[in-house]
Amino acid sequence: MKILGTNIISSLGFTTLDNFEQVKSGASGVKYYEAGTFDLPEPFLASLIDKIKLEEHFADMLNQSTSPQNVEADSLTLLERASVLSVVYANREAEVDLSSPHTLFVLSTTKGNIDAIDVDYRGNGSPFLWSTVRRIADFFGNPNAPIVVSNACISGAAAQVVALRYINNGLFDNVVVVGVDFLSKFIISGFQSFRALAPDVCKPFDAERCGLNLGESAATIIFGKDTDDKPAQARLVCGAIRNDATHISAPSRTGEGCCRAIRNVLCGGQPTADDIAFICAHGTATPYNDAMEANAIYRAGLGSVVVNSLKSLFGHTLGAAGVLETIVSVEALGRGIVLPTLNCNNPEQLIIDNQSFSLNITKTITHTDKKYFLKTLSGFGGVNAALLLEKY
């Protein structure tokens, strides 16, 4: 399944290229926010989209559009506007018919419009996820019943697996996967109650890591059939979801589900560890998550493969993470480079099967001529996912 077009809207920019260039330069979108932000009593660090610029981009997009609007733009929530804008920007590259019955919309999110309170009889401003994706699809005049994937932090990967199944089974020619989540008092206070937030920019896989940073994003991948004659930068080869259901919020200490997901996407023996350029891990910088992933990678026989995490650049963007981080990794692989993990200065040493083990974390941009990478994600409830992508 080919990737025909992408877009990322985040604190680092409003296009895939803008975001990627910021990442290459080592810029982090994670900033310090004073107490009172989101009406919270404590300060926090997060990666927040500039909402004023978002409105300006959306207004410019409407002014430049020659297509009819099937939903009044003023009735869209800000999260829905960001999603629509991301789809429009991604389709400038993909050039597919978004109103076609052969195109499906899939929304990846964990919270959606959680703070929406003004609901009319049509679902405008509704907190329900079905309403959000319906209104996004309706904006483009798409006639199909869209799909919501809300499966904790693996939502972005799970949505891509859904897209792969629909296209490989011949049900649709194109699938638009939109990952989006915005932050709010509800979300941040929830993570604060877990004591999961770091007091500084997070340190994925570092021995002194102490928590995560949250982030916002709207990111889009438009997929097409391998037989499509349109140019593509990469293809999604396969994906796997494995749920170990260890605990409502803590991951399996041995990385059971994550390991099984990785093994599944490599079960054909191709590619081997020597063929994989890097693993873009979930890498939240929480103590249990990173140790679990290291365990899973070791058990899957990929201990020598370079591993990176993008969380110290974008924060943890929840339901958008799997989409955003796949796009950034595709851009890196297309340029023959492996991105470093920001702030990982002292990778943790673990004892696994009575052997001392540390992930192969690079601190600088390195070059590669390999053509595959893995994307892994894990989330609350013991959910795990792995994707295998190939340079096209």
Q: Beta-strand level of the residues, as a percent range?
A: 15-25%
Q: How many E-type strands?
A: 18
How large, in whole angstroms, is the Cα Rg?
20 Å
Mean pLDDT across every amino acid position: 92
Q: What overall geometry do the principal axes of the alpha carbons give?
A: globular
Structural class: alpha/beta
Q: What's the total helix number?
A: 10
Element order: H for helix, E for strand: EHEEHHEHEHEHEEEHEHEHHEEEEEEE
What is the helical fraction, as a range of percent?
25-40%
Contiguous low-pLDDT stretches (5 residues minimum) are 118-123
Q: How would a textbook summarize the main sheet? A: 6 strands, mixed
Read across the widest sheet, the strand sequence of neighbours is 9-18-17-10-11-15
Distance between the termini: 10 Å
List keywords for this structure.
alpha/beta; five-stranded mixed sheet; 29% helix; six-stranded mixed sheet; 18 strands; 392 residues
Question: What would you say this structure looks like, in words?
Answer:
This protein is of the alpha/beta class. Helices cover 29% and strands 23% of the residues. It has ten helices and 18 strands. Strands 9-18-17-10-11-15 form a six-stranded mixed sheet, sandwiched between helices. It has a five-stranded mixed sheet with strand order 1-8-6-4-5, with helices on both faces. A three-stranded mixed sheet has the order 2-3-7. The radius of gyration is 20 Å and the shape is globular. 53% of the residues are buried.
